[in-house]
Amino acid sequence: MDKDSLILLYRQMLLIRVFEDKSAEMYARAKIGGFLHLYNGQEAIAVGAVAALRPDDDLVTHYRDHGYALARGLSARAVMAELFGRETGTTGGRGGSMHLADVSKHFWGGYAIVGGHLPLAAGLAYAAQHHQTGRVVFCVMGDGSTNIGTFHAALNWTQLWRLPVIFTVENNQYAMGTAIANHSAVTEIYRKACAYDMHAEQVDGNDVLAVREAVCRLATRARNGEGPALLEAITFRHRGHSMADSDVQRPKSQVAEWKERDPIPAFAEVLLARNLVTPNDLEQIARDVEAEVEDAVAFADASPEPARKTLYEGIYAEPVSNMQIDGSLIGPPTLGPVIFKNGVSKHG
Ligand SMILES: Cc1ncc(C[n+]2csc(CCOP(=O)(O)OP(=O)(O)O)c2C)c(N)n1
Ligand SMILES: [Mg+2]
After folding, report:
1. What is the pLDDT of residues 146-195, one digit of tens each?
2. Which of 20, 99, 114, 232 to mutate to test the pocket of ligand 1 (most atoms within 8 A of CB)?
3. What is the pTM of this model?
4. 205 lines ligand 1 (CB under 6 A)
5. Does residue 166 contact residue 121 with C-beta atoms inside 8 Å?
6. Domain boundary assignment for the chain
7. Of 146, 162, 152, the residue nearest 119 (C-alpha)
8. What atom in ligand 1 is closest to the CA of residue 146?
9. Which residue CA neighbors atom 4 of ligand 1 most closely?
10. Nearest partner of 214 among 168, 255, 172, 176, judged by Cα
11. According to the CATH classification, is domain 3-306 in 3.40.50.2000?
């Protein structure tokens, strides 16, 4: 990678960190509602992985998705506005934190159901193979997801069909407050792939360059028709499971130990040691990132909430005729049976 690309990796990791610290503050001020799962400590995985992919490779994520959205180039403004539930958000303020998406960027987004998105990734990979687009699908999940039935179904199917997908497990060693040794019979997650004869690797998830290299390698394999892979990235989250979690189950000493291995200062050290940046350059990057996040908050706060009349948009292909908002009917103007495309009729 050239100097500018390496510095960009650092900037992206820092942007995610500062953005999320600000989101935590906005959550505490009740500007953000619903759930908020932060990615502090895991930034090297999203940034390293997205840097290894083509812009048209498909990205499917779990609910801890802010880092992937920002790394894929969704604007800080649109992501913050989505967290605020505003019209200018990535999904018009309807999805919130766990459902960021931008199909124009092949970012199929965040899914709230643990493991529920793996079959979707398999479907996208099937489409890529069938239409010979040359695309690879990158699907990320947590360690807890690997105990779910869809994990096994998706690995089996994609290996059987040699589909171009990289399943990446962010092994942050806990599913909510349950330590991996208490939730998984196999604690080295990459070994689960051998049940399906699938290629698997383990990588240091706190090393952005190691993650990028691993994903480059696995993407090349997949593009060459060599099939899917399971990548286990070892990491740790600095905060509790979500903003609603008081994080009492994880030993404080373990959290402190992993904070010492923070991927962002570690990569700053690499850049400094290679004489690619000066301490002044790093300070300038920090100032730029702070300004970008402040601008995103101001933008989100000034954006309107979605109009009530749009409440049902994007939910039904054909709105049901008796839907009402503020006493007035929306959807098809005539009352009477609504015939759905599958031939089922319902009386509105
Ligand atoms: C099918 C399903 N079961 C339970 C939940 C509740 N839940 C949300 S996140 C989570 C833990 C998942 O842990 P892991 O896969 O390790 O991801 P992490 O949060 O650590 O990134 C659980 C149990 C859910 N959303 N979906
Ligand atoms: Mg986990």
Report:
1. 999 999 999 999 999 999 999 999 999 999 999 999 999 999 999 999 99
2. 114
3. 0.93
4. no
5. no
6. 3-306, 310-348
7. 152
8. 15
9. 114
10. 168
11. no
